[in-house]
Amino acid sequence: MKIKKILKSIWDEFIYGGHLQLLGAASVVFISALLLKIKISWDILIISYLIFYPVYSYNRFKEINIDRLTNPERTQYFKKYLKFIPTILVFAVLILISGLAYFANTKALMFSLFLFVFGILYTIVFKKITRKIYLFKNLYVSAFYFLLVFFPIIYYSYFSKTSLMISALLLGMFISFKAFMVQIFLDIKDIESDKREKLRTLPVILGKEKTLIILSVSNLVVTIAVPIILSLYLNIFSKLMLMFIFTIPFDFYCYSLAKKEKYFGYILQSGEFFLWLFLILIGKAIL
Fold first, then answer.
1. Is the pLDDT of residue 47 over 90?
2. Which of 267, 210, 264, 263 is nearest to 70 (CA)?
3. What CATH code is carried by the domain that includes residue 223?
């Protein structure tokens, strides 16, 4: 029983503590480096993880009362150590800064801190803009993932090649689109709380069913077309990019769970970029 309790505590922390999304952010950095043919070391992945951790935790901390409307289990979990979150956040930021000071160059340090501040500012300042500008929250989050694509270039100072920057731009656009779709899907579970805050998300505007139809069509077209065009026809990326097409069954499975009011569909979808990592590693082994 004790082992079962320990395993449940680890699972709850992994899911409700946002570690699936954090691994997704690190996965984007790893995948970007692999497709851009940049050799990386383990420290950039840890730093990517640490940039996102305090951002996620701070958002959950500030919005815990709003979150309870649509995510009662996560809210209940956070309340267990709510009083410790400020200390955890300070500790996490200190570790991030220490890691950057030891491993990163000045440009990488500044860019990392920019990503951190960029993430924090949404909760503090920019979330209110979503009340005035349609889909602003989704665009903001997708911009964060777009910037992550450039992190390996900045971290290892690969600025000289114009072709590399163009490739990163194209890859960033694709990844940010996928992040945009993921965020719209995750907004479905927050319809009630977003309505209360008067946020103009797509599910609030169109409703659940129409949002799922738009996501299904958009995701299908882009996820098939972009990897084929960029890898097979333009030869900008290796055939590894074709592995992203296999995310389609995963996405549709998540949509199916959402239709059935299964919260697990949202948990799965939040880890999509972590799935990409496994697909890329499988592709690397067989292609």
1. yes
2. 263
3. 1.10.600
